[in-house]
Amino acid sequence: xxxxxxxxxxxxxxxxxxxxxxxxxxxxxxxxxxxxxxxxxxxxxxxxxxxxxxxxxxxxxxxxxxxxxxxxxxxxxxxxxxxxxxxxxxxxxxxxxxxxxxxxxxxxxxxxxxxxxxxxxxxxxxxxxxxxxxxxxxxxxxxxxxxxxxxxxxxxxxxxxxxxxxxxxxxxxxxxxxxxxxxxxxxxxxxxxxxxxxxxxxxxxxxxxxxxxxxxxxxxxxxxxxxxxxxxxxxxxxxxxxxxxxxxxxxxxxxxxxxxxxxxxxxxxxxxxxxxxxxxxxxxxxxxxxxxxxxxxxxxxxxxxx
Length: 306
Known about the structure:
Elements: E1 6-10, E2 16-20, E3 44-59, E4 62-69, E5 78-81, E6 85-92, E7 101-102, E8 121-127, E9 132-137, H1 143-148, E10 152-158, E11 167-176, H2 184-192, E12 197-200, H3 206-209, E13 212-215, E14 219-228, E15 233-237, E16 244-247, E17 250-253, E18 264-266, E19 271-277, E20 282-288, H4 291-294, E21 299-305
Parallel strand pairs: 3-6, 5-10, 11-14, 13-21
Antiparallel strand pairs: 1-2, 3-4, 6-8, 7-9, 9-10, 11-12, 14-19, 15-18, 15-20, 16-17, 16-19, 20-21
């Protein structure tokens, strides 16, 4: 709220784009649903995941073709418990090779992470051995290009005895590179580490316009995964303190400890969650506290009402 940034960039076709994170989204835009559903019952979870090219609104009023898992950026969130088995069928509906790498798996990558060609499919089966907030992403080289163009998602494996909360959300942070996907100009920006913006769940500043919600006194848990591919994040909620911090499979802070926390810091490929109790009504901005990122789209609102 109140953060404005104008960015101009040139794509491989020399078209000029303007990124204004304070603008309004297009009519009909729908945000990626950040609400995290409970882990489903049963010990085996099956999903068909289709690699598709899709034009999406990546910033207010800005549309771009993205490479996706399932037609969204990020792809579908998977959730389960330690010991659960996931059977994922990847189908390649695009015109180029793609693969997939689930960080939640422990297995030899040779076969399940191989690149499949257009029209092909593969089955990726893994057992969740450890709890955590895990990244999945395209495994085809150059991975920098495939991840940066949207081929990533999150897998949440609940820690044992994870308590229930009033509100539970998941945010996957990624970089935004405008321009024709795969063009020399776009790839040069990726290699130089010059994103045009940063996104939570596929749209820069999207949750400014479609806030996360809670009520006064709610315990809110936010899972965060940093998809990168190159930028770290320093996740912060303005006006809140975290009494629980879980990062990379371990609690750094638990409810009842004498201290509090202000940041969940994640390198590319890492994940975790934080919890806070919101004390009064208002608008609580959540940001990547690296303000180069926060002011260029890694920003949203948690709206709290009575």
